[in-house]
Amino acid sequence: MAAGVAAWLPFARAAAIGWMPVANLPMPVAPAEKNKRQDELIILNVSGRRFQTWRNTLDRYPDTLLGSSEKEFFYNEETKEYFFDRDPDVFRSVLNFYRTGKLHYPRYECISSYDEELAFFGIVPEIIGDCCYEEYKDRKRENAERLMDDQEDNKDAKLPNMTFRETMWRAFENPHTSTMALVFYYVTGFFIAVSVITNVVETVPCGSAPNQKEVPCGERYTVAFFCMDTACVMIFTVEYLMRLFAAPSRYRFMRSVMSIIDVVAILPYYIGLVMTDNEDVSGAFVTLRVFRVFRIFKFSRHSQGLRILGYTLKSCASELGFLLFSLTMAIIIFATVMFYAEKGSSSSKFTSIPASFWYTIVTMTTLGYGDMVPKTIAGKIFGSICSLSGVLVIALPVPVIVSNFSRIYHQNQRADKRRAQKKARLARIRISKTGSSNAFLHSKRNGLFNEALELTGSTEDEKRLSKSTSLLESQHHHLLHCLEKTTVSVLALSHILNHEFVDEQYYQQSYLEGGLQNYPSRSPSLSSQDGVTGTCCTRRTKKHHTPLPNASAPAHMQPLTHTHTHPQGLQELSTIHIQPLSTSRSSLNMRVDEPAPLNCQSSQITTAIISIPTPPVTTPEGDAHLPAGPTHQNVVKVSAL
Amino acid sequence: NHALMGSYENSSDSDLELSTVRHQPEGLDQLQAQTKFTRKELQSLYRGFKNECPSGLVDEETFKSIYSQFFPQGDATTYAHFLFNAFDMDRNGSIRFEDFVIGLSVLLRGSVTEKLNWAFNLYDINKDGYITKEEMLAIMKSIYDMMGRYTYPCVRDEAPSEHVDKFFQKMDRNRDGVVTIEEFIETCQKDENIMNSMQLFENVI
Asked: Does the keyword Oxidoreductase apply (chain B) (predicted)?
């Protein structure tokens, strides 16, 4: 519940009187408001600046320093105020959180000092409102990156316990780590350049003997070029194998783009070695040599800019695709028109529509080679229209695409951020909802224990239990409990907790089979949410003392572990409750099996039963937590007692 | 220029008008006279009210959203709608602090008869003095909606109407198909459970 809405709880409870005439069952007892005191102002002295607020305001979040009894450690008897030796500027945001329920991050504040203050006052930064959350996360990320950069600068010394393999991988990824790595980096770079230049020079016609026609250098100095090629390929192969050896995840490395480029760069050479000088395949072999040019892409390991370019092209693929599509449309239109316009002319080069494509492309991109020229008047008219529209069609999208590059690049990053935040926000809302429902279930069980303990007369355990829920929560739970009584059914939370659909039949079946047997094991999703679930009030992620979140068997043992008399109490429970259970179980069974009308009389026995069905993945530890004694279902409230 | 300025001022005036729709409650003394709350209680109530509705008026949407927060597992909007109508006595679409506090005074400090009257008013959707089966069915469905879908035992679709039938069996003495205020109060006063539950929330504030 949000802080401000907590003030409306009295109203919601009063409105519950509307259910009373309708309900057929007696209502549960309202939680007693022990030592109810009038609301008073308390003074918080933060480094000399005095803040004042109502005590109730601070009590809204009992899990923080100011909302719990932890603040008593800071109470100054002489001045009757709470003194904190902290930053008063940041405290303003902290106190506003209590007042409004929303935590804001002031932009002028340093992120690490803000984090420290939040940690001191026990407030989880995740609850920062959406208005300030993006800013907070950005600053935090920048700070973390800067810290990491600083760390990396200091990381020149080799970490002592790295294996040879890890050292190699580090050397490959970051050439600045050691001199060897740097040498390797430059050597490979040099050989890539040499290889590329060799490929290029191979085709240049060298000077020829006077009576022979010009031959390309590749054929003149075959041996030299072959040696160069071999040397380069050897270096590349060795490099590739070394990288493969050093890679932490070989499978992932083999799938990465760079390794594919490496392989494609050296493969033609090996294929050439393997293949003999067969006339049939030599044509294919020549084609393969084209792939040698891929060696130039190996430079992208050496150049950050190439990598960024590749990434931006990839991210603008849809824009480029659209440009291509609209161009294709225009080309087809104009090619068709030109073809039919020039059909009449005798020695026309426009022999077919595909033949006209070439003319259209050349004209639209304002190249104008002049190898195909319209001769008819209609053709000339349409040709000029084509070139004019070409200017528009080509020139306009290009700046748009260029700006799209930067826009999409930044937008992608921001969209991902927003999506993650939205997910996080929804998750937070879900968590707080399940938290409040969990807390309700848990406090019902606590209320049950309270009653049992009252019967057995141990008061100190009762005190300890009642401390675990704040008055606000117990009142809210009492409200929900009244609603349950009115509608004669009980809130079961499997769906809300696990967010998966539990088959209704499975549910009923498990109830029928489970019956009076062991309590189903705890749902794994709950256990994973240990630190963060809870009521909507903030929870300190590091604190263990959160008796509320888990609505499962081990959790309801949690308060039990504080005092060791509880197993006793539990057994008492089982004896007390088994009898009504048997009588009402038959009626409930009836409900489950046949669509009998709701029998008001029998349900006067007022045993409400919650069972959380076993989720498909059960953790074995859940069963282990159960003490040997109670083999009862989780009976919640037997007010007939 | 003057004409332009005039039109500019006009538009800004209308903007001002829309944004400063707010309501100040009557004085503390008058409210004290009209309700059974003490001064301090009224102050505390107003602080909570003003925090959530700075404009001093609660419209139906805000009301529904506030009430729904107490029932996260189900859909409390229909019941909140009926509640809103019960509080909004002058039917102008918004609840002022006076309406709020007067309603609360009846619910928390009123006599049992007053509370029963209030409940009857809640159930009687069209405020004609009779509760018909349709009205009761609507109310019942909205209450069951608040429980949500995930309950045990599962709330069947016929549960609200069966509940309504039981209600009418109990309340409708002369079997004329409607429940009047006299029948309602008389039957409730004879039912011990209901009488006990009426006292349940007296210490809420």
From this structure: no
Among chain B residues, CA nearest to A507: B152
Question: Residue A322 has what pLDDT?
Answer: 79
Say which of B44, B144, B151 has its CB closest to residue A492: B151
Q: Which residue has the higher pLDDT, A594 or A415?
A: A415
Cβ–Cβ gap B152/A490 under 8 Å? yes
Is residue B8 a part of any domain in this protein? no
CB contact under 8 A, A21 and B69: no
Distance separating the N- and C-terminal Cα atoms of chain A? 32
> Closest to A490 (Cβ–Cβ): which among B40, B69, B151?
B151
Inter-CA distances, B119 with A17, A570, B170, B188, Å: 7, 40, 16, 11
pLDDT number for residue A65: 87
Least confident of A109-113, A127-131, A158-162, B91-95: A158-162
pLDDT value of residue A566: 37
Nearest CA in chain B to A483: B147
In chain B, which residue's Cα lies nearest the Cα of A484?
B147
Task: Look at residue B13 and tell me if it is in a domain.
Answer: no
In this structure, the strands spanning A49-54 and A490-491 are unpaired
Q: Is some CB atom of chain A closer than 8 A to the CB atom of B137?
A: no
Q: Tell the CATH topology of A311-428.
A: Helix Hairpins (1.10.287)
CA distance A338 to A42: 88
Q: Is B112 on the interface with A (CB under 8 A)?
A: no
Q: Which of A11, A26, A489 sits opposite B151 (nearest CB)?
A: A489
Statement to judge: residues B145 and B97 lie in one domain? no
State the total domains in chain B: 2
Which residue, B93, B109, B125, sits at the end of a domain?
A: B109
Q: Which among B72, B153, B198 has CB closest to A436? A: B72
Burial (CB count <10 Å: 0-12, 13-18, 19+), residue A628: exposed
- List Cβ neighbours of B123 (8 Å cut-off, separation of 6 or more): A18, A21, B131, B135, B136, B139
Q: Is residue B192 part of a domain?
A: yes
Query: What does the pLDDT look like over A300-315, one tens digit per residue?
Result: 888 766 776 777 777 7
Q: What are the sequence ranges of the domains in chain A?
A: 41-156, 174-302, 311-428
Which residues of A are less than 8 Å from B196 in CB distance?
A: 26-27
> What is d(CA A10, CA A253) in angstroms, rounded to the nearest whole number?
62
Shared domain for B162 and B98, answered yes or no, is: no
Q: Give the global pTM.
A: 0.47
Give the Cα separation of A385 and A44 in Å (integer).
Answer: 79
Query: Over 50: is that where the pLDDT of A524 sits?
Result: no
> What is the CATH T-level fold of the domain A41-156, as seen in this structure?
Potassium Channel Kv1.1; Chain A (3.30.710)
Q: Are B50 and B105 part of one and the same domain?
A: yes
Would you say residue B18 lies in a domain?
no
Residues of A in contact with B163 (CB under 8 A): 22, 487, 598
Is B198 near chain A, with CB under 8 Å?
yes
State how far residue B143 is from chain A, nearest Cα, in angstroms. 8
3-state secondary structure of A24: coil
Q: A573 and A630 in contact (C-beta within 8 Å)?
A: yes
What single DSSP character describes residue A639? T
Query: What CATH number belongs to A174-302?
Result: 1.20.120.350
Binning pLDDT at 50, 70 and 90, where does residue A331 land?
Answer: very high
Q: B178 and B162 in one domain?
A: yes
**Which is it for strands A81-84 and A41-46: parallel, antiparallel or unpaired?**
parallel
CATH number at residue B152: 1.10.238.10
Asked whether residue A257 carries a pLDDT value surpassing 80, the answer given is: yes
Q: Which of B60, B92, B109 is the last residue of a domain?
A: B109
Q: Which of A1, A9, A11, A27 to probe by mutation at the B interface, max B CB count within 10 Å? A: A11
**Structural domain of residue B180, as residue ranges?**
111-204
Tokens, residue B128 = 């004609």
Number of cross-chain residue pairs from A and B with Cβ atoms under 8 Å apart:
161
Task: Name which of A12, A21, A433 is nearest B72 (Cβ-Cβ).
Answer: A433
**Tokens 């210490």 correspond to what residue?**
B203
Per-residue model confidence as pLDDT tens digits over A374-391: 999 999 999 999 999 888
Task: Collect all residues of chain B within an 8 Å Cβ-Cβ radius of residue A30.
Answer: 200-201, 203
